[in-house]
Write a structure and sequence with these properties.
Layout: E1 27-36, E2 39-47, E3 55-61, E4 67-71, E5 85-93, E6 106-114, E7 134-141, E8 149-150, E9 167-174, E10 178-185, E11 194-200, H1 201-209
Antiparallel strand pairs: 1-2, 2-3, 3-4, 5-6, 6-7, 7-8, 9-10, 10-11
């Protein structure tokens, strides 16, 4: 939807940003848009029509404002706990401080993963299925984007200490002096509320110095 004012959005035309007719990349969802290298990029999640899994695709914004598909899998599904599901939900551009002072610009990419999309019988969630994803992390040098390297290859990095362990849909907002991080986290009563954590930028700078 495009309009010159917020009020004008009420009568604006709704148009798809990106679509696919291919069964293997039919359902496109969960966009993550950001500016880097003078261009606007959009990472998205794609679900095939005939299989329960997900992929991480990439599109780039054209000069006319539309998006063009660039790649269908910039972070392939992993070899272990995330063999069926891989969905990037947030990008965090790290500051050029500490160990990153003289190196190239680097970004972290938070993603959701799961071994499959189905429950494995009684006894809770032994591995992970739809709506019970766990959290992983990848890293990439901005100048080499979309090249990414998985940091959570053998096991997830983010698991809730309560309930089923679900920890997914990380989102990071950068403020003037801190980062606000939200994610969906399993609780002891089985609910999955959105929780939030505030990370001061000074704290991240201290971590990069170690």
């Amino acid at each position: 939807m495009a309009a010159r004012t917020v009020e004008a959005l009420a009568g604006a035309e709704v148009r798809p940003v990106l679509r696919s007719e291919e069964p293997a990349w039919l359902h496109l969802k969960d966009p993550v848009a950001f500016d880097m290298g003078g261009r606007t990029w959009m990472i998205y999640c794609a679900h095939p029509f005939n299989w329960t899994s997900s992929n991480v695709g990439l599109a780039q914004r054209r000069l006319d404002g539309s998006f063009a598909d660039c790649a269908r899998s910039i972070l392939p599904r992993g070899p272990a706990w995330d063999v069926a599901v891989c969905r990037v939900t947030a990008r965090l551009a790290l500051p050029g401080a500490g160990v990153l002072t003289r190196g190239p610009a680097v970004s972290l990419y938070f993603y959701d993963g799961a071994e499959c999309m189905h429950e494995h019988g009684a006894g809770g969630r032994p591995r992970g299925y739809s709506c019970e994803e766990l959290g992983g992390l990848a890293v990439g040098v901005d100048a080499e984007f979309p090249g990414l390297e998985r940091l959570s290859e053998g096991s997830p990095l983010f698991v809730s200490p309560r309930g089923t362990g679900c920890s997914r849909y990380v989102s990071v907002f950068e403020g003037d002096d801190a980062y606000l991080v939200t994610w969906q986290q399993s609780q002891a009563d089985g609910s999955q509320p959105l929780v939030i954590n505030r990370v001061p930028k000074a704290q991240l700078a201290r971590l990069l110095r170690t």
